[in-house]
Amino acid sequence: MYTENVKTSHLSVARSISVSSPASDPPHTPGASQKMSSEAPSPDESRVSAAESVKSFIAGGFGGVAAVCVGHPFDLTKTRLQTAAPGAYTGAIDVVKKTLAKDGIAGMYRGMVPPLLGVTPIFAVSFWAYDASKQLIFALTPNRTSESLSIAELATAGFLSAVPTTLVTAPVERAKVLLQVQGQAGSQTKYSGVTDVLKHLYKEGGIKSIFRGTGATLARDGPGSAAYFAAYEITKKALTPAGSSPSELNLGAIIVAGGTAGVAMWALAIPPDVLKSRIQSAPTGTYSGLMDCARKTIAQDGVRALWKGFGPAMARAFPANAATFLGVEASRKLMDGFF
């Protein structure tokens, strides 16, 4: 989810957990005041006040914004490595050097507005869908012997959460990628901002053009979200002392669990992310779909091309997720003092 990710995310890829004060975690939750639990909720736990829902929604937004601010330079580097012509860059450091030389520090934040604008709804939809998916699993297994969801069931809920979230993430990613890649390798600046991108895309091919890459986005965020939630639960349990509740984890442990989950997600999501970036940045008609993009990418650049941007993505995953948790916790505590 994105966001980048962030999705994220997503995902964006960011997620949510209840600690000493309830909070959300990436990506992308209106129900952040509830525990991110694998256990069947009681009626009382299922009732969340309007004020708490508002706090959760806002806190998730702040967490997502923090993730974007910390992670965007890494994301831009990843996207440029994925979409540039062979030989344009020797590696991630070369991308940074050339970007700074041409556009200064502001160049590292090119294309940041789309994920900033999209991160709040992405986080909200993702966590709402994740919670709904868990409830669906409980509803479909009325005779279950355990009141807790297994890791496989949590991963399934994570995968399902990406389905509705993609409807928000895909157009955000489309605009972000186009803004990130313009100006590289001496190309001219075509778009002046997000609104200009959307106007051009709509004029070029209508809504279909704006949502180009939706299938690739789901191919990335579905498995990515599954890995994220599974890794998060495993790490959270591993960091919980015997006899203690996971909800009593301290902030440091939460950051470690969230960062680990982010790394797990991107370790799996890079190949479809490469294809998504290429589909969304290529001229109309270059690729007929995800599989066509995969075939042409491998034929032209080899299988290794599917892992372009792996370094920047991994470098971004941990700090971006840590920033998300810090943003959520800080904003949540601030709001608790007001209402």
UniProtKB/TrEMBL annotation:
<keyword id="KW-0813">Transport</keyword>
<keyword id="KW-0496">Mitochondrion</keyword>
<feature type="repeat" description="Solcar">
    <location>
        <begin position="149"/>
        <end position="238"/>
    </location>
</feature>
<keyword id="KW-0677">Repeat</keyword>
<dbReference type="GO" id="GO:0006839">
    <property type="term" value="P:mitochondrial transport"/>
</dbReference>
<dbReference type="GO" id="GO:0015227">
    <property type="term" value="F:O-acyl-L-carnitine transmembrane transporter activity"/>
</dbReference>
<dbReference type="GO" id="GO:1902603">
    <property type="term" value="P:carnitine transmembrane transport"/>
</dbReference>
<protein>
    <submittedName>
        <fullName>Uncharacterized protein</fullName>
    </submittedName>
</protein>
<dbReference type="InterPro" id="IPR018108">
    <property type="entry name" value="MCP_transmembrane"/>
</dbReference>
<feature type="repeat" description="Solcar">
    <location>
        <begin position="249"/>
        <end position="334"/>
    </location>
</feature>
<feature type="repeat" description="Solcar">
    <location>
        <begin position="51"/>
        <end position="136"/>
    </location>
</feature>
<dbReference type="GO" id="GO:0031966">
    <property type="term" value="C:mitochondrial membrane"/>
</dbReference>
<feature type="compositionally biased region" description="Polar residues">
    <location>
        <begin position="31"/>
        <end position="40"/>
    </location>
</feature>
<feature type="region of interest" description="Disordered">
    <location>
        <begin position="16"/>
        <end position="46"/>
    </location>
</feature>
<keyword id="KW-0812">Transmembrane</keyword>
<dbReference type="Pfam" id="PF00153">
    <property type="entry name" value="Mito_carr"/>
</dbReference>
<keyword id="KW-1133">Transmembrane helix</keyword>
<comment type="similarity">
    <text>Belongs to the mitochondrial carrier (TC 2.A.29) family.</text>
</comment>
<keyword id="KW-0472">Membrane</keyword>
<dbReference type="InterPro" id="IPR023395">
    <property type="entry name" value="MCP_dom_sf"/>
</dbReference>
<dbReference type="InterPro" id="IPR050567">
    <property type="entry name" value="Mitochondrial_Carrier"/>
</dbReference>
